[in-house]
Structures are given as structure tokens and as C-alpha cells.
Amino acid sequence: MAATPWLLLLCLILAAGGVLQARAQPDSKGFISVDCGLQGETGYTENTTKLSMAPDNGGFTDDAGTCHNISAEYVTPLMGKSWFNLRSFAAGTRNCYTLRSIVPGLKYLVRARFMYGNYDGLHRLPMFDLHIGVNFWRTVNISSPFAAKFVEVIVVVPDDYVQVCLINTGAGTPFISGLDLRPLKKTMYPQVTAAQGLVLLTRFNFGGDENTGIRYPDDPHDRMWFPWVNSSSWTEISTTRRVKYEADSPFEAPMAVMQTAIRPRNASHNIEFDWEPQPQANDPSPGYIIIMHFSELQLLPSNAVREFYINLNGKLLNRDVMRPPYLYGQASYNTFAIRKSYYIVSLNATANSTLPPIINALELFSVIPTTNLSTNSQDVSAILVIKAKYQVHKNWMGDPCGPGTVMVWDSLTCSYAIASPPRITRVDLSSRGLNGDISSSFANLKALQYLNLSNNNLVGSIPNVLSQLTSLTVLDLSRNQLNGSIPFGLLVRVQDGSLDLRYGNNSDICTNGNSCQLPTKQRSKLAIYIAIPAVLIVIIVAVVLFCFIRRKCQGSINNSVRPRNEMMTSYASGDDLYGDGSLRLESRQFTYEELKMITNNFERVLGRGGFGYVYDGFLEDGTQVAVKLRSHSSDQGDKEFLAEARILTQIHHKNLVTMIGYCKDGEYLALVYEYMSEGTLHDHIEACGRWWKSR
Ligand SMILES: *[C@@H]1O[C@H](CO)[C@@H](O)[C@H](O)[C@H]1NC(C)=O
Ligand SMILES: *[C@@H]1O[C@H](CO)[C@@H](O)[C@H](O)[C@H]1NC(C)=O
Ligand SMILES: *[C@@H]1O[C@H](CO)[C@@H](O)[C@H](O)[C@H]1NC(C)=O
Ligand SMILES: *[C@@H]1O[C@H](CO)[C@@H](O)[C@H](O)[C@H]1NC(C)=O
Ligand SMILES: *[C@@H]1O[C@H](CO)[C@@H](O)[C@H](O)[C@H]1NC(C)=O
Ligand SMILES: *[C@@H]1O[C@H](CO)[C@@H](O)[C@H](O)[C@H]1NC(C)=O
Ligand SMILES: *[C@@H]1O[C@H](CO)[C@@H](O)[C@H](O)[C@H]1NC(C)=O
Ligand SMILES: *[C@@H]1O[C@H](CO)[C@@H](O)[C@H](O)[C@H]1NC(C)=O
Ligand SMILES: *[C@@H]1O[C@H](CO)[C@@H](O)[C@H](O)[C@H]1NC(C)=O
Ligand SMILES: *[C@@H]1O[C@H](CO)[C@@H](O)[C@H](O)[C@H]1NC(C)=O
Ligand SMILES: *[C@@H]1O[C@H](CO)[C@@H](O)[C@H](O)[C@H]1NC(C)=O
User: Among candidates 428, 464, 477, 431, which has minimal Cα distance to 448?
Assistant: First the structure.
């Protein structure tokens, strides 16, 4: 007999009654039942199970997709209300339902339901993929417009939410009619682990009423048990007595299922069923888990024996002889998935057996790996807050980072490691029309390296918490309406060269005299920050010493110390540079050609600062200089560049760094500082010392 009828099985009759408030939260049993495409605020109670069905507007899909009714010609009088409507997703590659408020680490049964019913009037049966979180679940092939299709998976859910995603693979518009989530006990289905899930192929109740399936409340976990009878080859056996499984048995088929069984019509025959492996897109030879439920339903006379072997493809599947216990459930199952090219299960009576074999129920699963990790949960929480705040909708569905780089959310970049969850490393929300202030949730993206919020309508001040992002190297806030001062923490990062901060073309950052001033307290902190490092103290002492010696030198010998260039004016106070937004640099102006000569065609890089590289150079008179050239790829405006220069010079100690001049030549912008490395100072002191000695 062929074991394909589950594909053709029609739906259980689910009829509808009363009206309930919408329920996006699990009910008291931990169940979530969604009637996809049901419009309005209110759900209803489903007639046979008395479970409350929630409409799927709002929370579940972020308003993605559109609601449809199936065509009238496919509505039958006994059809349950939940099949009348569905939600389809014509836009986007991936659209997801998010089921929330669940317990991380527990096992859940997730079931999706589909009935096409020519809802779109196109008579085009679609095929699409389902993902459970970031893992492939299965391909859904809608094979008939009136077939009600159930697709089920049992998985360990790692987070306090789980997403069911419909993937458009180019073979038709994905849709869904219903979605259920049911918690299972930890002890159930031990084959399900954090790394492996079970996809249901079929769950049969042998000998049950041909017209009804069994589910909640008969099955407290609301598994669906489909009837399978075949009167031409099997005889049904049933009892009205209680049939139970031991407490905490891993499979626990419900009593209503265990109360019926079949035996071969011809008592000298065996029970046999078969199926063919169903290759999946990512697994051509899926592994199977077979769970069989047995219970003796007849009180056997003392001289009668019912015992049988369980064979797969003619070989023992289970070495133990099965003797079903009277009115108790017993399961036979494999722990590790079996992979064969065909499957024939036969229950063969032993030689001693006086009675033919029986079977009460069968569950057949294929295994899927669930090893792909979802994005770091703190990153997910933060990006969801950001998504909600700025109403970013485009493509932001499912897991932000995966699976794979194809599914990554538009505007994000992630990093992947083998054993740890992906992290969000880059966020580029430039030119997205963002309104409001800068969300402090950006500071919760702890692995963020690049944040571009330029060219939006952001207002308010720059949050200081951003300086907690230790990996952040680029922060572009230019072209917004931000105001206030730049937080101290960020200034420090800019100063030490670890952060490229851009904030040009904002309404009121550092251009307005008052808002631009660093508070006095911060200044003194800044001074401490600068003064404390021992190396700097040594340098200061050395400079003082050097200046003292230099004065002595100057008086005595002509060539040992360079004369100061008249065009150079020491850059005394940063506050004057940019006080009213205009340039007040009275230093020497260099052309780009001159800079090229000074730096020997930008030969030696001293380091990389906030806005570009810093090059080593020598003026005509031999003064060693540091040339900070605005990076060519930078889109930083002149004002920003000079404001940044102002910050840099403010932070640098006046005695240590002297600004010699600047370059503003076409697109080129550069600042030229006197450069005194320890070595140079040492050399000078050495030179003077030699002179003293030679006197
Ligand atoms: C019932 O059993 C007969 C004989 O084994 C088989 O030919 C037939 O296909 C079965 N029917 C169903 C619906 O499985
Ligand atoms: C469902 O219940 C309602 C009210 O209890 C009743 O009117 C309706 O006929 C029932 N539907 C079915 C299919 O039993
Ligand atoms: C579906 O049918 C219901 C009535 O049964 C109606 O209220 C609703 O507007 C219909 N929805 C669509 C999308 O046509
Ligand atoms: C999908 O179902 C249709 C109709 O049953 C069938 O013809 C087709 O081969 C199936 N496609 C795949 C890839 O299984
Ligand atoms: C039962 O099967 C055996 C062997 O296949 C056969 O010889 C016998 O006639 C069958 N009995 C009936 C009642 O069909
Ligand atoms: C079990 O019975 C089937 C026929 O029902 C037979 O083909 C098979 O060889 C038997 N297996 C064993 C191990 O006896
Ligand atoms: C059949 O019964 C005999 C006698 O009770 C016993 O010795 C033998 O082991 C049994 N065989 C099997 C396969 O159970
Ligand atoms: C895991 O993600 C990769 C893409 O990176 C994908 O190809 C693969 O199918 C996924 N694995 C599962 C089990 O879904
Ligand atoms: C930020 O985005 C804008 C617009 O896409 C782009 O021009 C600019 O170069 C980006 N900033 C950085 C630092 O990459
Ligand atoms: C910045 O702008 C907001 C309005 O956008 C205003 O409420 C706030 O007072 C301004 N802050 C400063 C320091 O100007
Ligand atoms: C700033 O605005 C001015 C005038 O609108 C424009 O010319 C300049 O390119 C802008 N700078 C940046 C960095 O966007």
C-alpha cells in the first residue's frame, strides 16, 4: 500500500463560533493560533477545539503582505472559518511571522496551514520555501487549489521569539492560511536537539473514525492525528477502556489514538507499509525518524501470544520482539536518522505468535539541521527598536544577518563566526528620510564599526552613549539638523585617531559660539587626559629643556638652530579659528604642489587621523612637519574639516603642537603642524650638547 495519502488528506473540519479579543500572546496553555488574513481587531473561538484564533494584523507580520478571501467556488458548507482567508506576500523575497513571548530553549511544535482556493483568480499554484528562524524548514508545493496542506516542524527555539519565514523562490507568490505554535515537554521527542529538528511527513491514527482527525483537546499538545483505515487489507480493533502511556514517556500518544488499532484482515499476513524518500532542495537524501505506537487492546487468553518483529527493508529495525502491553502504550523508534533509497516497514509475527501483529499509530519525520545561528539577540533587540523608531520597512524582515549574505537586511553588514551568532557591524541609513533624534539603541549594537546617518532630518544632540561603541571607526552624521556640542567621549575617540567623525552641514553643531564650547569641567578632564601619560610629561620636560638650551645656542652659534619663518604664526588659541563660522587662520597658506614637495610626494605616513592620513615632511628650512591631508574619498566639507582641525588643536597641548599653516587648494585640504618626535628633540639636544662640549 502506498503511504502518500497525507498529501491528499483533506482538512479537519474547523468550524467557527464566538468572538474574542485579538491574541498575539500565547494563551494559558502556551498556544498561539493565528488565522492568517483574518481582518479586524477581534479573533474568535474555533468550534471543535474551543481554541481562540487570533487575527494576524499588527504584531505578527509588521503589516507586510495583503489579505485575501479564497474564491467562492472553493468554499464548502462544512469548511472551517480559518480556511476562508489567507495572507499573500507579493513583495519581498522573505516575509516572516514573528511569534513572541515564548520560552527560550524549549521544544515547540510549529504548524503552518495552506489552502490556495484560487484567491488571486489566476489559477496558478505556487511553490515556495519555508524557513524556521534562520534554518531551512521545507519547500511547500501547492499541488491542488482545494487541498488543505499542513506542514509541521518540531524544534528547540533558542530565543524568546520564533520566526516563520516564507521565501519567494521565483515559483509563485507565497501565501499562508494559518499558523500554530504549541509547546512540548522537554522530555518529548528526544531526537529534537538544538542542532536538529523534525519535519513531519505524516502522523497516522490507525483504525480511527475515517471522518475525523484527533487533535486538541484529545491531544493536550494539539498534534494532528490523521485517520488511516483500509478495510480491504486491515481489520480495526478498538476499546473504550483507558489506554495510557507511562508518565513522561517521550512520545505520549493521546488515549483517543491509542484506543484504536489495526491488524491484518488475513491473520496469517503481516502489516506492511512503505514510502519513498522525498529529496529536499538542500538535502537530496533526507534522514528519517520512525515512531510506532503499540498497545494490546484485547485481553488475551493465557494460551494466546501476540508478538512480532519490526523490520525495515527486510532487516530488523528493533532487535527486541514487540509484545504490546495490555492497555499501556509502548513506542518503538529510532534515535538516529536512517537514510535509505526506499523504505518498507513490515511487522512480522514470530513463529511462536498465535495472533497477527497490530499497530495503533505511526509518526514519520525527516530531520533538518538547525545549526544556523540567528543574530546576536542584543543586536536584534536594538535593530528592532531602530526599525520601529524610524519606520524602516523595506526588506527588514526575518533575521537581520541571515541565513547567508543574500538574506541580510538591506543597509546592514554583518560579521559571521563559526560558533557564535552573527553580529551587525555596519549600518548605513544615509538618505533614508529619518526623522526624530538619534536613537540611543545604536549604542546597543556593540559590534558596530560603521554608522552612517548622513543626509536625513535628524534633530537634537549627539548622544554621548555612542562613545561606548568601542569598535566604531566611522560615524557620519553630516547633513542633518543636529545641534549641541560633540560629546566628550567621541572627541577623545576622534583625537586618538580611532574614530572618523563627520558632522558637517548640521544646523547647530560647534558653529554657534556657546553650544560649541566644551564645559569647563570637561576641559579640565581633557587637560588631565592629555597631561598624565608619562611619555608626554617626559616630552614636556624635554621641550622646556630644549627651549632653554636653544636660547643659549641661538646666542652663540648661527647655523645650529633654524630661524623662525616669518610667515609662520604660532597657532595660539583654537577658539579663534572658527568662532563665527568663518576661517581666521593667519598662518601660512600652502599650495598642494608645495605639500607634495614638503612630503616628498607623500612618501612617509606617520599615522591615520580623524579625516585622513598624516604625512611626514620637511620645510625648506629643515623644520620637520606633520601634514594632515583630508582623505580623497572623504566627502567632508571645508567647514567640517576646519572644525575638526579646531578640535584637534584644542585637544593637543599648545606647547607640543604648533600649527604652521594650512592648504586649501581646490579639492585639497590639509593642515601643517610642527612635528617633534622624541627622536628629533633628542637629536637637537645632542647637537647642542656637542656644541657645549666643543666649547
Ligand atoms: C488498501 O490496501 C490495498 C491492498 O493492500 C491497496 O491496494 C490499496 O491501495 C490500499 N488503499 C489505501 C487507500 O491505502
Ligand atoms: C459552530 O458554532 C456555532 C455557534 O456555537 C454554530 O452556530 C455553528 O453552526 C457551528 N459550526 C459548525 C460547523 O458546527
Ligand atoms: C472577505 O470576506 C469577508 C466576509 O466574509 C469580508 O468582510 C472581507 O472584506 C473580505 N476580504 C477581502 C479581502 O475581500
Ligand atoms: C509540485 O507539484 C506539482 C503538482 O502536484 C508537480 O507536478 C510538480 O512536479 C511538483 N514540483 C516539485 C518540485 O516537487
Ligand atoms: C490468508 O493468506 C494465506 C497466505 O497468503 C492464504 O493462503 C489464505 O487463503 C488467506 N486466507 C483468507 C481467508 O484469505
Ligand atoms: C516479513 O514479512 C514480509 C511479508 O509480509 C516478508 O516479505 C518479509 O520477508 C518478512 N521479513 C522477515 C524478516 O521475516
Ligand atoms: C518460542 O517459545 C519457546 C517456548 O516457549 C521458546 O523457547 C522460544 O524461545 C520462543 N521463541 C521466540 C522467538 O520467542
Ligand atoms: C544555513 O545558512 C546557509 C547560508 O549561509 C544556507 O545555505 C543553509 O541552507 C542554511 N542551513 C540551514 C540548515 O538552513
Ligand atoms: C555616508 O553615506 C553617504 C550617502 O550615501 C555617502 O556619500 C558618504 O560617503 C557616507 N559616509 C561615509 C563616511 O562613508
Ligand atoms: C536642539 O534642538 C532642539 C529642537 O530640535 C531644541 O529643543 C534644543 O533646545 C536644541 N538644543 C540646543 C543645545 O540648541
Ligand atoms: C553642505 O551644504 C552646502 C550648501 O548646501 C553644500 O554645498 C555642501 O556640499 C554640503 N556639504 C556636505 C558635506 O554635504
Answer: 428
What's the confidence (pLDDT) of residue 632?
61
- At 646, is the pLDDT very low, low, confident or very high (cuts 50, 70, 90)? low
- CB-based contact 518:526 (threshold 8 Å): yes
Relative to beta strand 226-228, strand 196-206 is: parallel
This prediction has a pTM of: 0.74
For residue 530, what is its C-alpha cell?
592629555
Q: How far is the CA of 451 from the centre of ligand 9 (A)?
A: 9
Q: Which residues pair with 436 in a beta bridge?
A: 458
As a whole number of angstroms, the distance between CA 204 and CA 293 comes to 10
- 454 pocket-lining for ligand 9 (C-beta < 6 Å): yes
Q: Enumerate residues lining ligand 7, CB below 6 A.
A: 350-352
387 labeled part of a ligand binding site: no
State whether the beta carbon of 635 lies less than 6 angstroms from ligand 11.
yes
**402 CA distance to ligand 6 middle (Å):** 48
657: left (phi over 0), alpha (psi -120 to 50) or beta: beta
**What pLDDT score was predicted for residue 348?**
96
DSSP string across 409-460: PTTEEEE--SSS--EEEEEE-TTS--EES--GGGGG-TT--EEE--SSEEEE
CA atoms within 13 A on the CB side of 88: 17
Q: Give the mean model confidence (pLDDT) for residues 484-498.
A: 88
Per-residue pLDDT, averaged over 520-547, amounts to 39
Query: How many angstroms separate the CA atoms of 588 and 672, rounded?
Result: 9
Q: How far is CA 453 from the centre of its chain?
A: 21
Q: What is the longest distance spanned by two Cα atoms in the chain?
A: 129
Residue 69 alpha carbon to ligand 3 centre in Å: 6
**Domains of the chain as residue ranges with CATH:** 5-184 (2.60.120.430), 226-369 (2.60.120), 377-518 (3.80.10.10), 534-685 (3.30.200.20)
pLDDT at 507 over 80: no
List, for residues 553-566, the tens digit of each pLDDT value: 333 323 222 223 32
Cα(16) to ligand 2 centroid in Å equals: 6
Confidence check: pLDDT of 635 > 60: no
Contact 261, 241 (CB under 8 A): no
State the ligand closest to the CA atom of 482.
10
State the average pLDDT over residues 136-142: 95
